[in-house]
Amino acid sequence: MTTTVDLARRFAALHAPAAPLALANAWDVLSARLVEAAGAPAVATTSAGVAWSLGTPDGDALSRDRALDLIARVAAAVSVPVTADIEGGFGADPAGVGETVTGVIEAGAVGINIEDGTRAPADHAERVAAARAAADTAGVPLFINARIDTFLFGLGEEDERLDETLARAAACLRAGASGIFVPGVNDVATVTELVKGIDAPLNLLVGPGAPAVAELGALGVARVSLGSGVASAAYDVVRRAAEELLAGGTYTALDGGLPYGELNALLKG
To answer: Keywords in UniProt for this one (predicted)?
Structure first.
């Protein structure tokens, strides 16, 4: 029987530049099953997609209980390791983050993303430390992916951003992070410096216009994520189909949709 610890170790081992872990982020049970059926060795949730599907905006607006319920549903639906995006930790302070992480592990996930956003770096590091302490108490080698938003949000002076990112990454690693996620950057020069300066698996956010997975792996990137991109694309189909139907009475936006039977079969058993 595969245990949570086994899944956690399997997930950690997937982080290798030789073959970067490529994550097409899911937001509900069916999207997770589709990702697994495509051959993915792990499933990651997107906080934005999860929040949108549950009727709330992204950005620490979703309640912890609703987030944990979704994580449990996804983890129960797939056989591969699951890593959950928990935004800033769904807690008012580090102790609250620890409570969230305990719930995440009980829900069956073996990894988390936890972001700093506009929080002070010291606050983020304390949250990472609380997450690690909770995982240690549970006896699970949780993969803690510490997200640093300096590039994504354009924090600080541009010529100091790289050094600030590396300093924040080092603080997170000292606090117990397993890997570092730096969204908002894909240029070769900066990625090369990030890989060189971060002594842990580096995760990037990718999408149209970004280098291919193999190219990023050659630079030393160990993990790439589509983030909210897949959910955004799915919702774009909804809008285009509705607008076409209402404005012209036609249905071409539905061309290429997955067969009903195929989708239904993924949820049977």
So the answer is: Lyase
Q: What are the DSSP E strand ranges found in 116-171? A: 143-147
Residue 227 gets the label, from left (phi > 0), alpha (psi -120 to 50) or beta, of: left
Is residue 155 within 8 A of residue 149, CB to CB? The reply is yes
The interaxial angle of helices 121-138 and 161-175, nearest 10 deg, is 30
Query: How confident is the model over 26-48, as pLDDT tens digits?
Result: 999 999 999 999 999 999 999 99
DSSP 201: -
Report phi then psi at 225, rounded to 5.
-135, 145
Q: How many CB atoms lie within 10 A of CB 261?
A: 8
Q: What is the chain's alpha carbon radius of gyration, rounded to the nearest angstrom?
A: 19
Structure tokens at 248: 């012209």
CA 251 centroid distance within chain: 33
Q: What is the DSSP letter of 257?
A: P
Do residues 162 and 189 make contact, with C-beta atoms less than 8 angstroms apart?
no
Instruction: Give the residue among 1, 33, 22 at the shortest CA–CA distance from 258.
Output: 33
Q: What global pTM score does this model have?
A: 0.97
